Amino acid sequence: MNTTDFLSIATAICADKAAIIFEGKRYTFADLNERVNRLANALMRLGVKKGERVATLQVNCNQIPEIYYATAKVGAIFVPLNFRAKEEELSYMLAHSETNTLFAGDRYIDMVRSMRPQLPLVKNFISIDSKQPDMLYYDDLLASSSAEDVVTEIGDDDITMLMYTAGTTGRPKGVPLTHNSFASYILENVEPADPETVEVNLLTVPLYHVAGAQAMLAATYGGRTLAMIRQFEVKQWLETVDREKANRAMLVPTMLKQVIDHPDFPKYDLSGLRVITYGAAPMPFEVIKKAIELLPWVRFINAFGQTETASTITILGPEDHIIEGTEEEKDKKLRRLVSSIGRPMADVEMKVIDEEGTELAPGEVGEIVARGPRIMSGYWKDEEKTAKALTPDGWLHTSDMGWRDEDNYFYLAGRGDDMIIRGGENISPEEVENVLRSHPQIDEAAVIGVPDPDWGQQPKAIVVLKEGEKATPEEIMEYCRAKLASFKRPRSVVFVDSLPRNPMGKVLKRVLREEHGAS
After folding, report:
1. d(CA 425, CA 428)
2. Global confidence as pTM
3. Class of domain 8-149+156-231
4. Fold entry, domain 420-516
């Protein structure tokens, strides 16, 4: 089944049910399907063909699902761009993906205009929010196009999304995901649309993130109402759960902490919540413990996955969040709640291997690898990175170090690479280091992740200044602010005389973490 069938089936079964709620507007599944068809016909009129790339640069809004499904209906490939990225990063992703059509929100219009000379392959620039003199306008495209259903021959193994994720080499990596990458998970784990069932999903995870994309598709297939807010803001989240009686929500640990710590938390009616899924970064035990105490009726699920795996591959389920039984059973459950990412999903194989690729026994630490129908087949236009990430027989190197217990619960023991994870966002140290080295007063620089109680990790810069030069940490951080997405810039800077290196000249990050790894 391809993902466009999700919308067709939901529309046939529950046409009058609300599909999307966004900023006071409600769109039924019939409304959504009509808008998608109009946009798909408009894209075809603009010359968008099967396999071509259609990108979005916008925060969450009702138009993003419309653009996805319209793109999928014509057989093109959806490229949701990280709206927090800077101009240079965006130009790279648009050029690398060879995007043909770009949709942009108002807050990004000036940046898009600045990038246009570097984007000769982009033929169609479309403004989502308002009329612009040098762009097509979203609402005009819908108004001038047919609502006739668009039918394209689409295979389950055709690519439907191209998502960019941070790479330790400094450049984002393009991850192509097929219709089947999403459908195999959703068909196995989501109840199909039912006209009698009313369920509201609150979406705050950005749709450029694979977890957001999976949530959007799951809601459509399940005939659920998707309540959307542009970006996570804790008071708006609480108000939306209360007002819409939301039943499901997805949060990264940082978001959950902000919710339960908010001074007005007790004022809101959150009784409609049945399921909270969390993931994308390690969950501090005190946070999940407090959340369970404050929301005892909610089923909590820890979902672990990567862009390369089309999201979730292991689950720590609701039953694992209930600490009861004998003392031995409670100790085991408590240990799992503190540090386990759960057990593999039914369609996923996982194991822990050593440096030679040999599978390790329970309790032994090595790299976690995964295999299954949802795993990507390789990085977009990058054979070298693909060869490093995938074995010939389909095992994906996750770069996560860990171990498993006798009951096949998996546990993380750090990253096998130097990736930093801040609030669920991956940060490439090398990308930040490249910016630091471009500073006129810096000779050398290295970046490590340090613990942070609110964000999980924060980037910390260890800097060697050029001889005779002086600088303050504030100056260095401000320099990075102008050149990097806000979440990537270092939050602290340490000046040293030299960086530790091995005999081959490689910077020893392990030594830096030992010496400067405190928050």
Report:
1. 10
2. 0.83
3. alpha beta
4. GMP Synthetase; Chain A, domain 3 (3.30.300)
